[in-house]
């Protein structure tokens, strides 16, 4: 003798087969109804693939068909992984890389907006300088070059206090940031060494 069925599939009065399986009968009846010619088609109206409009079928994922390139976020020294999506060499989207053990697909607000480093129409493309109490930005490259040359000459040393030839300048130094990539660091090191600088550091190493 079996008792009423319970959620665990056993009789309330002891182990035994579950005598009633709710839902299966209704499901089987629905499947039989859908197999009836004509009636089944009417029953499928508004359900399954037939419910999708032509516009919906044409819609695809934002990154469908794009080239995905794994990269590293250029902002801080954490080194979060990014996936850069391009179409024909043009940047389309940047997302966090879920394969990265550092950020696991997440990005901070700056990393999420790093696409603006390339495509922001208001981004300045030249170095600008505003003089004290000035109201306009001026091109600063000529001013920077003049000051670098002047500082180099003012701080130049042919020999040190011990009489050894050093050919260096103590008039300026360079402190790089963590957003500099390998190529930029290489060029900065070569350029400042060629000018005679000896204090060349990077924020990430300090």
Describe it.
This protein is of the alpha+beta class and about 210 residues long. It folds into 3 domains: about 25-60, no CATH class; about 65-120, ADC-like domains (N-terminal domain of TfIIb); about 130-200, no CATH class. The chain contains 7 helices and 9 strands; from the N terminus they run H-H-H-E-E-E-H-H-E-E-H-E-E-E-H-E. A hairpin with a 2-residue loop joins strand 2 (about 80-85) and strand 3. The longest helix is centred in the C-terminal third of the chain and has 14 residues, at about 140-155. The protein is elongated and about 105 Å long.
Number of helices: 7
**Rg, Cα atoms, Å:** 35 Å
| Percentage of residues in strands | 15-25%
> Taking strands numbered 1, 2, ... along the chain, how are they ordered across the largest sheet?
1-2-3
Number of domains: 3
SSE order: HHHEEEHHEEHEEEHE
Q: How much helix, percentage-wise, in residues?
A: 25-40%
Straight-line distance between termini? 80 Å
Average pLDDT taken over every residue: 81
Question: Which class of secondary structure composition applies to the elements?
Answer: alpha+beta
Please describe the biggest sheet, giving its number of strands, its sense, and whether it closes into a barrel: 3 strands, antiparallel
* Apparent shape: elongated
């Amino acid at each position: 003798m079996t008792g009423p069925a319970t959620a665990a599939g056993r009789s309330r009065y002891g182990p035994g087969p579950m005598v009633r399986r709710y839902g299966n009968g209704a499901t089987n009846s629905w499947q039989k109804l859908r197999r009836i010619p004509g009636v089944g088609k009417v029953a499928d109206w508004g359900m399954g693939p037939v419910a999708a409009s032509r516009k919906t079928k044409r819609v695809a994922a934002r990154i469908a068909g794009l080239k995905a390139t794994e990269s590293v976020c250029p902002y801080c020294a954490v080194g979060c992984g990014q996936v850069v999506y391009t179409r024909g060499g043009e940047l389309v989207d940047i997302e966090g890389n879920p394969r990265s053990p550092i950020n696991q697909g997440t990005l901070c607000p700056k990393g999420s907006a790093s696409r603006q480093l390339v495509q922001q129409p208001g981004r300045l493309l030249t170095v600008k300088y505003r003089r004290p109490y000035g109201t306009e930005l001026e091109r600063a490259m000529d001013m920077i070059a003049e000051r670098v040359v002047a500082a180099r000459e003012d701080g130049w040393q042919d020999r040190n206090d011990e009489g050894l030839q050093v050919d260096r300048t103590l008039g300026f130094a360079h402190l790089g940031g963590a957003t500099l990539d390998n190529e930029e660091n290489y060029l900065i090191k070569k350029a400042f060494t060629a000018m005679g600088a000896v204090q060349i550091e990077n924020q990430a190493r300090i």
